[in-house]
Structures are given as C-alpha cells and as structure tokens.
C-alpha cells in the first residue's frame, strides 16, 4: 500500500513539475476561488456567492448556463483595480502550476460596463503582465485581444484596430486576436472582414470553431482565412456530424487545435472524457495542445488536464512530455521565445525522468 501511495503522489508531482504551455485561457474564466472571495468581499452588495461563479466536481451545465456564469463574473470584475488584481493572480497561479509560457485572452468590454475604455482595459492587462515579469515570475506571458462574436462587425473592427495598435506598441506582448463568445449567437461571416484585416496586419488568429454542432458553413468560411490555431473544433470531424472536407482542410494546413477536456465535459458538448475528440486528432498525429479554457469556472488547472488526458487515453509519461513539448511549436510568440522554451524543456527533462 505504501508503494501504491507513493506512486500516486509521484504521478501527481510529475504533472505539476511537467513544464507546460497554456494557449487557451480566458482571463475572466480563469479567476480562482481565492480571487473570487476577494472580489466578493469588495462587493458584498452584489449578493454573489462563489457557487454562482464555478462549476464544481461532477457538475455539468449547458453551454447557455456557462455563459450565465461569465455574466456573474463580469459583475464582480468591473473596475481597473479588479482587472489588475485578477490578471496578476491568474498569471501567478499559472506560473505556480508549472506553466512556462501563457497566452492569455480577454475581451475589452464596453465602457458602460467597466468605466474603462477598451484601450484602458487592454493597458490594464498589459500592466499586470509587466508587473508579474518585474516581480520575477518564471513565466512568459502574451496577450490575445478577444472579439466577442455577439457584438457584430463594428465592434470586431474596433477591437482589431486596437489590437493592431498594441501589437506595435506593447513590446511584443500583444500577439494576436481571439474569436470567442456564445457560439449560438451571431455568424462568422459578419466578422470575416475584421479577422482578415487582423491577419493582414500580422496579428495571429485563434478562432473558436465548431464548438457546437451544425456550424459547418461557418467553420468552412473561417477556415478559408485560415486561422493560425483552432479553439475546440469539437464538431469538425465526420463522426460527430462534421465533415471529411473540413478535417482535410485542417490537416492540410496543419492548424493546431486547442483542446480543453474538462471545459467540454462540464459544458456538455462532449458526453464524457473518453469520448473527447482529443482521441480523434491525437490518433491522426495532428498538432493538438491541451488547455484549460476557463480554469476558474471549470475548477481545474493545466496539470490536471494533462493528467486527465493521460489517464483517459493511456498516455505514458514520455508521450505526455512530447505533448507538452510540441505545444511550443504552436505559440504565437517569436522564434527566439520558442528556442528559449526548448532549452528550458531540455534542462528540465532529466529532473522529471530520473
Ligand atoms: C466555454 N466555452 C467558451 N466558448 C466561447 N467563449 C468563451 C468560452 N469560455 C469563455 N469564453 C469567452 O470568454 C469570456 C470571459 O473572459 P473575458 O471576459 O474575455 O476575459 C466570455 O464572456 C466569453 O466571451
Ligand atoms: Zn474558449
């Protein structure tokens, strides 16, 4: 029994010490329980309880209900001070979980919701990134400015213009644009011009694609850009109502897919861990990156997501290592950062496989 316990502990430590790359993390979905408590005590009048901002172990919600959770969190995070604290806490939590490179994404909200202009919103997140760097956190953080698909063409264009500005003025911190938001609202065709403009100006694109069924036309249209990475892609493959031609496009263009197991299970877009589309893409040998999506809302962290993938699909420690190392090739940061990360991985390898 002692041996057995030792093995479990050891296994846990492996995933925590595994150097990791996180490429799909929404800022306000990543707020931890501790930070939520701090926010609640700042705003007792809102009568918000932690149970309203997170989906616990064994619980599941519809995607609709998940978006209701974001509305609650947005009420709690609505000043410059809040955003700075939330971003700082989230970055430090990822660092403590062994994440060496993080691409954080967040949607600059309307001024009436935060009292901040979209520009100040972005500046505040950048300030948090710089602060963590100054304090010596062992993590390289970049920012993707998010477009909420619900807000349509004009807002998307405004967001892209800001992202372009910051790409040039943020010392390389702003590297791309994300398309997210409630997938049942709006259509990709209205956002295509903005996304095309972003791409032309050198911003990288990570797009939520086929997160729900019956979006074949939209996915086909958005794949024509093409995006630099895909978020979820849950319903792209034919076994779940997607199509072979969509899969072929993704494979031919070698577009990496960001996969978030717990998010999809708790948000009810996949029936269970073992039926997650990780299996489909992994067996194809396609570049896949394990991510958290919303570690606060879904009560997880990246170590746990790697561990879940490994235990569900029978991956050896070597296979898990390879998965985390291959994620380096999928980052939007520059080549020099990829090299630095490769070196870091090489330095840490003996420690994990002694
Ligand atoms: C669960 N699957 C998902 N699908 C689509 N969009 C999601 C999402 N999870 C989060 N977001 C997007 O991220 C926002 C919260 O973070 P920020 O305020 O931007 O930092 C949500 O309002 C939604 O637009
Ligand atoms: Zn997402």
From TrEMBL:
Gene Ontology MF: a single term: adenosine deaminase activity
Required cofactor(s): Zn(2+)
Catalysed reaction equations from the record: N(6)-methyl-AMP + H2O + H(+) = IMP + methylamine
Coiled coil: none
All copies of domain Adenosine deaminase, residue ranges: 19-344
Pfam families, alphabetized: A_deaminase
Biological-process GO terms, alphabetical: adenosine catabolic process; inosine biosynthetic process; nucleotide metabolic process
Keywords (A to Z) from UniProt: Hydrolase, Metal-binding, Nucleotide metabolism, Zinc
Quaternary data: Monomer.
Family: Belongs to the metallo-dependent hydrolases superfamily. Adenosine and AMP deaminases family.
PANTHER family recorded: ADENOSINE DEAMINASE (PTHR11409), ADENOSINE DEAMINASE-LIKE PROTEIN (PTHR11409:SF42)
Protein name: Adenosine deaminase domain-containing protein
């Amino acid at each position: 029994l002692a041996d057995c316990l030792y093995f479990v502990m050891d296994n846990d430590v492996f995933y925590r010490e595994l150097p990791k790359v996180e490429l799909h993390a929404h800022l306000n979905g990543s707020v931890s329980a501790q930070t939520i408590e701090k926010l609640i005590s700042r705003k007792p009048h809102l009568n918000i309880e932690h149970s309203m901002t997170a989906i616990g172990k064994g619980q599941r919600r519809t995607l609709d209900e998940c978006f209701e959770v974001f509305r609650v969190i947005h009420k709690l995070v609505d000043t410059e001070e809040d955003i700075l604290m939330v971003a700082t806490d989230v970055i430090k939590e990822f660092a403590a979980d062994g994440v060496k490179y993080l691409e954080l994404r967040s949607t600059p909200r309307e001024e009436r919701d935060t009292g901040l202009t979209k520009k100040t919103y972005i500046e505040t997140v950048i300030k948090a990134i710089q602060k963590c760097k100054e304090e010596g956190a062992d993590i390289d953080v970049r920012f993707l400015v998010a477009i909420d698909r619900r807000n349509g063409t004009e807002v998307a264009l405004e967001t892209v213009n800001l992202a372009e500005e910051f790409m040039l003025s943020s010392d390389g911190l702003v590297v791309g644009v994300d398309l997210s938001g409630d997938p049942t609202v709006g259509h990709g065709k209205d956002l295509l011009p903005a996304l095309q403009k972003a791409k032309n100006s050198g911003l990288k694109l990570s797009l939520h694609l086929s997160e729900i069924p019956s979006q074949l036309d939209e996915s086909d249209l958005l794949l024509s850009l093409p995006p630099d990475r895909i978020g979820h892609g849950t319903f792209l493959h034919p076994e779940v109502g997607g199509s072979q031609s969509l899969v072929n496009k993704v494979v031919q263009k070698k577009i990496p897919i960001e996969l978030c197991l717990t998010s999809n299970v708790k948000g009810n877009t996949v029936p269970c861990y073992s039926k997650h589309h990780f299996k489909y893409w992994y067996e194809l040998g396609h570049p896949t990156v394990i991510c958290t999506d919303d570690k606060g809302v879904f009560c997880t962290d990246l170590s746990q997501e790697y561990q879940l993938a490994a235990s569900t699909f029978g991956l050896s420690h070597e296979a898990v290592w390879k998965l985390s190392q291959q994620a380096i090739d999928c980052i939007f940061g520059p080549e020099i950062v990829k090299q630095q990360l490769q070196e870091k991985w090489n330095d840490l390898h003996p420690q994990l496989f002694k």
